[in-house]
Amino acid sequence: MQTQTIEFIRPIKPQTSNKITPERWSVPAVEELFKLPFSDLMFRAQQIHREHFDPNAVQLSTLLSIKTGGCSEDCGYCPQSAFHDAGVENRKMLEVGEVVKAAKAAQEAGADRFCMGAAWREPSKEDMEAVVEMVKAVRGLGMETCATLGMLNDEQTEQLRVAGLDYYNHNLDTSPEFYGDIISTRDYQDRLDTLDRVRNAGMHVCSGGIVGMGENLTQRAGLVAQLANMNPYPESVPINNLVKVEGTPLADTADLDPLDFVRTIAVARITMPTARVRLSAGRQQMSDAVQALCFLAGANSIFYGDQLLTTGNPDVERDRALMDKLGMYPFAEKNH
Ligand code: SAM
Ligand code: DTB
Ligand code: SF4
Q: Who lines ligand 3 at CB under 6 A?
């Protein structure tokens, strides 16, 4: 009986276009996945994970905030927005040398991807000149490069591609229906347009969202459906658990049940089988047991290093200890 239920929710309207994504996920179908008995959901996710990846390998990506604070957007979760008073200073952009130093340290600690984040609505011409130098220098170290700089136009995506940027991170954050409750200074379509530009320029897409912002189940499913129906879906999907920062409008949001976070990872894995699903922000507040469940649910990437952008992340020693305890290893080590 249970198997029939699982089969029923899998398939969705066939796509008529000749693009790559083989199936479309309706929001109700994704919601049905969320509602599966926990063990059935985990089993489905693990089967799919093992079809496409070594289930014991995890990708390690280190983040660096290259421009912190003073952002002109009003994202309700974000401590870097100039609309909120979260105690984050508006600092100037880092120098290329500082970025290279941080990237080398991350590489020595075992990271294979380096992600440069900036608190911008979009980069200016001068910003782009500096970022291009940073991307070239980090690539020169032999690391995979990622950047998250806000909205991009066609010229900027081309500049980044030429510089050698491997991934561009730009999150949808939540479902189109819930989005207006969280951000008012740019709309959902702006995000989709930037992601299209990144894809059309030939770079890999990193896009995900945040859960635990007070969204309901349909809205959570709506985020996953949006990501999974991108054509093709992102190669890298960060799932962030809201980090509640004092001074932001979402600081007092009720805690998400950790098992609902695990379910979100599993549903992302099932709907985007070949993506790197990243267990992203929120790990510092998570027990080892919940993180282990996330890996069982199909997460195979983490942010590595004791700092995200402005908030903390588990330190390298804690992550190495967790990987050892679980018999997990970095993708990069296995491949070299
Ligand atoms: N300013 C650029 C932008 O918004 O695209 C890049 C940096 S922005 C901080 C990158 C992403 O971090 C956001 O889209 C959001 O998903 C995530 N983020 C920011 N604050 C967060 C928080 N408090 N908890 C969880 N994720 C957060
Ligand atoms: C993503 O999805 N999460 C990262 C990265 N992409 C840029 C950012 C998390 C930020 C958490 C809050 C902070 O440290 O400021
Ligand atoms: Fe600015 Fe990005 Fe934070 Fe939004 S999420 S306020 S765009 S730094």
A: 71, 73, 75, 78, 80-81, 119, 121, 150
